Amino acid sequence: MEFPFDVDALLGERVTAVDQHLQPPGRRGPGYTAAHRVDLQQQLMTIIDEMGKASAKAQNLPAPITSASRMQTNHHVLYILKDNEVKTAGKGAIIGFLKVGYKKLFLLDRHGVHNEVEPLCVLDFYIHESLQRHGYGKELFQCMMQRERVQPHQLAVDRPSEKLLCFLRKHYNLQGTIPQVNNFVIFEGFFADQHAPVRKLPPKRAEEEIKPYSLTDREFLKEEVEPPWPFNQSHSLTRSSSLGNSPVRTCLKPFLNEQELLRNLRLCPPHVAAHQLLNGAEGGPAARRRRTSSLTRSENTSH
Ligand SMILES: CC(=O)SCCNC(=O)CCNC(=O)[C@H](O)C(C)(C)COP(=O)(O)OP(=O)(O)OC[C@H]1O[C@@H](n2cnc3c(N)ncnc32)[C@H](O)[C@@H]1OP(=O)(O)O
């Protein structure tokens, strides 16, 4: 992917790690000013936004899950792989990116027991269409694991595509998954290594404390395109196919029991339908409870 500015100079190294500060690490010439810094940061933001869009398109997602603004509000790390061999106009090009981040998750082990863990998660991964199956994905993944000091089986993967599952199977022999009730996929050996979830956390902002566990990075897409259960039931099949034809995506769709649903609704930003459900609109559980108790009362009085 090429840009109208010098990607090669902007990013410096072959693989660049970018965090929420969005600081381009590239070369600084003499006379480097604050205005230059803003320009370079703008260029980096353009790269992230364009790559995020391309990744979303490749995965048939309705909106990008990676963008400069989302990077600024999350503690994620974006590894960007550049091609400094491209001689056209001498500006370099972007080959792809890999986004990872630590997330607090409730994950089931082989015995069906919930474990609260905070593993490094693979959140978004994209290699430009023209360069897939050339080994660049592996180069980027290896670099990420080395810098993050993590082994493949210690990772949790957020709703992997069929291509990514093939990639993980081929390069890291990851195939036996441990079934989960959320969209994260983990592999055999995840719980065997006690060091996996251990991580020193930076101080957290208050609102992060109340995020529902196991909420995937892709969950916000769902909020944008459909109302909560049960209002989404009539077109759930249509939505699955709008997310792509991967059978994995369909079968990994979580199903919630009523208690989990109510907990999630309380933790989510207010939604009209959620309010109605919780506050007892016609058809909601509260209304049903009211109806049931009034029925019981009237039955009692009639006897
Ligand atoms: C959590 C998430 O990010 S889910 C979304 C993952 N991203 C996508 O699906 C976007 C589209 N795909 C891609 O961008 C890339 O194919 C990636 C990132 C999955 C892999 O990067 P690549 O550079 O292609 O991988 P690399 O060349 O190192 O390894 C190739 C292996 O990946 C897998 N793979 C790559 N492309 C495909 C494909 N079209 N079909 C099936 N398997 C594929 C295969 O195992 C392949 O080995 P093979 O060619 O011997 O069959």
From TrEMBL:
It catalyses: L-lysyl-[alpha-tubulin] + acetyl-CoA = N(6)-acetyl-L-lysyl-[alpha-tubulin] + CoA + H(+). Residues 293-303 have a biased composition (Low complexity). The keyword Transferase applies. Its EC number is 2.3.1.108. Residues 1-191 form the N-acetyltransferase domain. The record marks Q59 as: Crucial for catalytic activity. GO terms for biological process: neuron development; regulation of microtubule cytoskeleton organization. It is found in: Cytoplasm; Membrane, Clathrin-coated pit; Cell junction, Focal adhesion; Cell projection, Axon. Residues 279-303 are annotated as: Disordered. The keyword Transcription does not apply. GO terms for molecular function: tubulin N-acetyltransferase activity. Gene3D superfamilies: 3.40.630.30, 6.20.370.120. Specifically acetylates 'Lys-40' in alpha-tubulin on the lumenal side of microtubules. Promotes microtubule destabilization and accelerates microtubule dynamics; this activity may be independent of acetylation activity. Acetylates alpha-tubulin with a slow enzymatic rate, due to a catalytic site that is not optimized for acetyl transfer. Enters the microtubule through each end and diffuses quickly throughout the lumen of microtubules. This is Alpha-tubulin N-acetyltransferase 1.
